[in-house]
Design goal:
There is one protein chain. A 3-stranded antiparallel sheet has the order 6-1-7, with no helix packed on it. The protein has a two-stranded antiparallel ribbon with strand order 2-3. A two-stranded antiparallel sheet has the order 4-5. It has 3 domains: 62 residues, no CATH class; 84 residues, no CATH class; 54 residues, no CATH class. A hairpin with a 5-residue loop joins strand 8 and strand 9. Helix content is 42%, strand content 10%. The longest helix has 31 residues. By secondary structure, it is mostly helical. It is rod-shaped.
Length: 224
């Protein structure tokens, strides 16, 4: 049975005594002045000993790799994967520009692509309808977090402005976060890109954990 050696094996000698080999030195063939890349050893006595070595294989497809060959293969695989990801990202960006990227697909792929599509779409619109430069994480007008959907879909029609209400009084300007009304807490949560669901205690705890203060509530009351 023929054995195939690792590429860095230049010669091998298997002694007769104690190892059962033929005792002769087998050298890698040389073709046109260069060592043969695939060396097939056909010496039954030596093969019986060498088949247990990690430098030899019974098939061409399973020839052991050297350290350099392993690193080169891993680097080639990594480069190929990166090329495929870049091609996928470029295709998705083009679809996004044409408005052909489904919302569900955009939301799934946005974290995987690190926001790359948003960086090449002219501008994005925050959940409150304000235009922002592409790639911006928070709205420059209201501070709302730019969602993956808003970034991938691009500019959208801004919502109708809320109906004008009565001017805020002194109590509204100085109200504490824990004393705010439910709708005020929900508005604050949306402004900071947080979940606005739940009861008042849950909203207050969520806002506090995100660093939202009574000063933010005061600015919300003034803006209203």
């Amino acid at each position: 049975m023929t054995l195939y050696s690792r590429s860095d094996v230049a010669a091998v000698t298997v002694p007769v005594a104690g190892f059962g080999g033929c005792g002769n030195t087998h050298s890698r063939p040389v073709v046109n002045g260069a060592p043969e890349k695939t060396w097939a050893l056909d010496c039954p006595p030596c093969e019986d000993h060498l088949r247990h070595s990690d430098q030899w294989s019974a098939t061409v497809t399973e020839i052991p790799e050297t350290y350099d060959e392993t690193k080169a293969r891993e680097q080639a695989e990594k480069s190929g994967k990166l090329d495929r990801e870049n091609q996928l990202a470029a295709a998705i960006i083009e679809l996004g520009k044409l408005g052909q990227l489904p919302d569900a697909l955009g939301q799934v792929l946005a974290p995987m692509l690190g926001g790359a599509p948003a960086a090449l779409i002219g501008k994005v619109v925050c959940p409150q309808g304000h235009d922002n430069p592409a790639g911006q994480k928070f709205c420059g007008d209201c501070g709302s977090a730019m969602s993956a959907k808003a970034a991938l879909d691009g500019p959208q029609r801004p919502p109708a402005p809320p109906a004008a209400g009565p001017p805020p009084d002194d109590r509204q300007r100085s109200v504490r976060l824990r004393d705010a009304r439910l709708e005020e807490l929900q508005a604050l949560a949306r402004m900071h890109g947080l979940d606005d669901g739940g009861k008042r205690p849950e909203l207050i705890a969520r806002l506090a954990d995100a660093g939202v203060t009574s000063a933010d509530l005061a600015r919300l009351s003034v803006a209203a």
